[in-house]
Amino acid sequence: MDDADFARVIDRCTFDYVRVFPHPIARVWRAITDEAEVSQWFWTAAFEPRLGAPFRFGPDEGGIKGVILAFEPPRLIRFSDPPAGGEGYFEFRLASVAGGTRVTLVQHGTPSGVRVDWPSPGLLAGWHLNIDNLGVFIDGGVCQGSRAREDALAEIYRERGLFASQGGM
Description:
Elements: E1 8-11, E2 14-21, H1 25-33, H2 35-41, E3 45-47, E4 54-57, E5 64-72, E6 76-80, E7 89-97, E8 100-108, H3 121-138, H4 147-160
Antiparallel strand pairs: 1-2, 2-8, 3-4, 4-5, 5-6, 6-7, 7-8
Helix pairs in contact: 2-3, 3-4
């Protein structure tokens, strides 16, 4: 696995992933903003792609709920992230580049809401699998979750020390 595939820790409250997919920006944007497509590679999704719209990912209990904080087709969609505290969010930024579309997935928490162990190896591994699944889906493949792969990625993140409790930030 290439080092570029792993999360980059930007600061104590922010990390990102960057991928380039060999598809036009319109195709990638649709995969990120169409609830039926998001439900194939991420989590069951319910939202209308517009500024201020409520969203839900996952089950009613234990899922993620919030509102769309920014919506700039086909370049940016930002979702609030109440578990990350205060003004926490996760977002997808898209840019056309030679050979396709660069996707930057950013998650940001606020200092008052971020736990000491944030981001945890499990959180980093989960997002890692999700951004990989986005690529599989856009390529026409079938996304499959794998607890073993997620656990292996979490162990790699733990070894790399990319989270606060291991002194990585």
